[in-house]
Every structure is written in structure tokens, then in C-alpha cells.
Write a structure and sequence with these properties.
Structural class: mainly alpha
Helix content: over 70%
CATH class: Mainly Alpha
Distance between the termini: 38 Å
Largest sheet: none
Strand content: under 5%
Bound molecules: phenylalanine
CATH topology: Hydantoin permease
Radius of gyration: 21 Å
CATH architecture: Orthogonal Bundle
Oligomer: single chain
Length: 455
């Protein structure tokens, strides 16, 4: 049951910064640009934006309504709304997914720390060719001790914030980190867009070439919209559960969705002009930020500073997301098992670190994990597929069905509007939650299973 001591955001702004901090992460700055680059640029971006509006916003509001009404973690929330049913397992899947995503996300976040260090010491800026850059990347991620230590450092930072609690830990950290991130991104975008030849990068992002549209592109855009908005595992249920009663939740939720999307576009406005200014192919895949960018920084005026700024903000963005991943699991143990928050943060964080070790070692250090059970993909990729693709999609689908058909739109709307602030266009919201979202998310799930598409 909810206890009075669960904590609460100090106000709407505190919630917006924390929730946007969850949404804005490696998904925006690392995954969005390379996914857009692999899927033809403008056309992908347009479909992605449509999905944010048609699916992202309605699902954000659905999760928030559950959180606000129940003031509980995902498991407790479903237990309260549908007692004695199996819906609690959907919450359980969410908590497990938070743990699962954290266990590989923290590994990639650890790489950003190492690039930040490399940028500070000049090693990253000193790379001049893509081959050299690739060698640096592979030496880093293919090691055994360093990737594990970096993951541990990142986990320790996450634990430190989460153990501080909702307003003294998470809100206090995100209030500093998010504005810093925003200012740095804007400065870097201006710098990148004014590079010689940068205009072609802007055109690539905004001029849709519809001949590039395919089922793959559409599905990639839908998956990206869910992942980027932290949907499908109850992160927004949990953050919504700390929302103060008096404040305008529908508006805050919509602001978070737009904030997240704006940051993805800003990241694109940094990366694509930079790529085009030196004539690099934007479809380089997941290595784009780690392999391609360092060799570009080396060619830019003040590239060394640019590199430090970029990896610093990537680290910040990742941290505010890992905080939310750990918080979902911690909230479960605090609410349902009456654990002390400090104890829960420490032990869950450490347990997650143990589960992260195989992912950290899977990029070369351990042969069997590098080619996981002969599947041709690494253990980290497998984790990404299980938690980041299947699990989030199942979660989002279940959530829409729950809100649209079990709990019901009228109850969800009442919770959303509890402070008296109305949700404009709630009929449209109802149609999207009941019909459009389940069909679209169900389609992505079937599609992922049939094609075994990973990101
Ligand atoms: N949205 C985060 C990002 O873009 C990732 C995330 C997914 C965080 C799910 C929490 C829950 O990096």
C-alpha cells in the first residue's frame, strides 16, 4: 500500500524535468540519429513524428493516469485497479523490464564515460580516420576489466541519486542536469549547423524522400517512439505516482512528449550537419556516435572542446534515464515489500550490476557471449532484443488494452483530470488508446517476431 513517505515531486516543473530526463537518453542522442540514418532520413523522421503524436502521447497519458490514481509502483497499481486478476503480471513484467534494460543500458552508458575521458585527455580528438576510430572503439568495448569498471561507476552514480529519494535525489539531480543538457545541445546544434556543408545534413533530416518508405522504416519509427518516450514498462506509471494532486497532469505529460521529441531532433541537427560537412555516410549504424563522430571532431575547428561537450551531455542524458530505470524497481520493493529506499537502491543496483557483467564482456572479451550461443549476435544485443523490443512492446500493448477496455477511459480520464485541469481532445485520446494504439503496437510485435529485427 502507498505510504505517506513515498515522496512527491515539488511541483509540475520538477515532474517535467524528471520525466523528460527519463525519456531523453541514449535513445535520443545515440539511437535516434543512427536509426534515422539507417532508414533514409526525412521520411523516417516524419513517420516517427506521426507515431509520437498518435501513439506516444496517448500511451504517456495512459501510464500517467494509472500512476496518479493509484500512487503506486506498476505491480501495486495493477493490483489496486484489478484486484485478484492476472493484470499484476503486466506490472511485474514492467519491473523486470526496468531491471533488464538497466543491465545493458548501463554498459553502453559506461562507454560514454570512457569517451568523455578520452575526449578530456585528447585521445578521442586525436583520432583522424574512421579506421583508427573503429580500432579505439573495439579496443575499449572488447576489453574485460575496463567495460565492467565503467558499468560499475555508472551504476554507482545511479544508485547515489535514487537512494536520495524522489525530490531530494531524482528531482534535485535532474533540475541541474536537464537545463545543462538543453543549453549544451542548443549551442552544439548551432555550431554544427553553421559548419561548411552542414546544410545538407539539415535537408537530409527534413526533406522526406518517400521512395525510402517501407514496412521496415515504419516499424523502426514506431519502436523508436516507444523506447524514446520510456513507454511500456511503467516508468511513467511510477513517475506519475509522485505527481502532486493539485497540478495539471495532462499538460505536463504532453510537454514531456514534446520535450523528448524536440531533443531527438536537436541531436539530429548536431549529428547530421557534422556528418555531411565531412562527407560521411549517415547509415553507419550503432557505431555512429562512438566511431564516426570522433573522427569528425578531429576535423572540426575546436573539435576537442566539441567532443568533451558532446560526451558529457551523452553521459548526463544516459544518467537521467538509468535513474528512472532503477527507480521503477526500487519503487516496487519500497511499496510492496516495505524495503527501506536506501537499502533497496543499493542492493537492486548491485544485483543489476551482476547481471550487466555478461553484457559488458560480450563485445569481444568472452567468445561465447560475443557470438551468443551461435546466434551471430552478442549477448548485449540479445538483452536489447528481449527487454528493449519484445518486452516494451508487450507492455505497451497490454497497457492500452487495460486502460481502453478493462479499467476504462472514463476512469482514466477522471484520474488524469483530478486536479480540475481538462485534457483537450479526450475523445480523440479515447479512440487512439482503444483502437489505434493496440493495433499499431500489436503490429510491431508481430513484425519483430516474424523478422527478428533488432536495433
Ligand atoms: N527513454 C530512454 C532513452 O531514450 C530509455 C528508457 C526506456 C528509459 C524505458 C526508461 C524506460 O534513452
Amino acid at each position: 500500500m502507498a505510504s505517506a513517505g513515498r515522496g512527491q515531486w515539488s511541483g509540475k516543473a520538477g515532474f517535467i524535468l524528471a520525466a523528460a530526463g527519463s525519456a531523453i537518453g541514449l535513445g535520443n542522442i545515440w539511437r535516434f540519429p543512427y536509426t534515422a540514418g539507417e532508414n533514409g532520413g526525412g521520411a523516417f523522421v516524419l513517420v516517427y513524428l506521426a507515431f509520437v503524436l498518435l501513439i506516444g502521447v496517448p500511451v504517456v497519458l495512459s501510464e500517467l493516469s494509472i500512476g496518479r490514481f493509484t500512487k503506486l509502483n506498476p505491480v501495486g497499481a495493477f493490483k489496486k485497479l484489478a484486484p485478484g486478476t492476472n493484470w499484476k503480471w503486466l506490472g511485474g513484467l514492467g519491473v523486470l523490464t526496468g531491471f533488464g534494460i538497466l543491465a545493458f543500458y548501463s554498459v553502453i552508458a559506461g562507454w560514454t564515460l570512457s569517451y568523455l575521458w578520452g575526449a578530456i585527455t585528447g585521445q578521442v580528438g586525436g583520432v583522424t580516420t574512421a579506421e583508427q576510430s573503429n580500432a579505439v572503439f573495439e579496443a575499449l568495448i572488447g576489453g574485460s576489466l575496463v567495460p565492467v569498471i565503467l558499468t560499475a561507476i555508472f551504476m554507482a552514480m545511479t544508485i547515489l541519486v535514487v537512494r536520495g529519494g524522489v525530490s531530494n535525489g531524482i528531482e534535485r539531480a535532474t533540475k541541474i542536469l536537464m537545463p545543462t543538457l538543453l543549453v549544451m545541445l542548443v549551442v552544439m546544434a548551432i555550431r554544427a549547423m553553421t559548419l561548411d556543408g552542414g546544410g545538407a545534413g539539415i535537408a537530409y533530416l527534413f526533406q522526406p524522400d518517400f521512395s525510402k518508405l517501407s514496412v521496415d522504416v515504419i516499424m523502426a519509427a514506431l519502436g523508436q517512439a516507444l523506447f524514446s518516450l520510456s513507454l511500456g514498462m511503467g516508468a511513467m506509471i511510477t513517475y506519475g505516482s509522485y505527481f502532486p494532486d493539485r497540478e495539471n497532469l495532462p499538460q505536463a505529460g504532453i510537454v514531456v512528449a514534446f520535450f523528448d521529441t524536440g531533443i531527438a531532433i536537436l541531436a539530429g541537427l548536431i549529428i547530421f550537419p557534422a556528418l555531411f560537412s565531412v562527407g560521411v555516410d549517415p547509415s553507419a549504424g550503432p557505431g555512429l556516435v562512438f566511431v564516426v563522430l570522433p573522427s569528425i571532431f578531429a576535423q572540426l575547428p575546436a573539435g576537442g572542446l566539441f567532443a568533451i561537450a558532446f560526451y558529457f551531455l551523452l553521459t548526463i542524458a544516459a544518467l537521467t534515464s538509468t535513474i528512472s530505470l532503477l527507480e521503477v524497481v526500487v519503487a516496487y520493493f519500497v511499496d510492496e515489500k516495505q524495503w527501506d529506499r536506501k537499502k533497496a537502491s543499493l542492493w537492486i543496483g548491485l544485483a543489476c550490476l551482476v547481471f550487466a557483467v555478461p553484457s559488458a564482456l560480450s563485445q569481444g572479451a568472452v567468445g561465447g557471449l560475443t557470438d551468443f550461443l551461435g546466434t551471430g549476435v552478442t549477448y548485449l544485443d540479445i538483452q536489447n532484443i528481449i527487454w528493449g523490443n519484445y518486452s516494451l512492446s508487450i507492455g505497451a500493448l497490454g497497457l492500452c488494452i487495460f486502460v481502453g477496455w478493462k479499467w476504462g477511459i472514463p476512469s482514466a480520464l477522471e484520474a488524469l483530470e483530478a486536479s480540475g485541469h481538462k485534457l483537450q481532445g479526450h475523445t480523440l485520446w479515447s479512440i487512439l488508446v482503444r483502437f489505434v494504439c493496440p493495433v499499431a503496437v500489436g503490429a510491431i510485435l508481430v513484425y519483430i517476431m516474424i523478422t527478428q529485427q533488432y536495433f
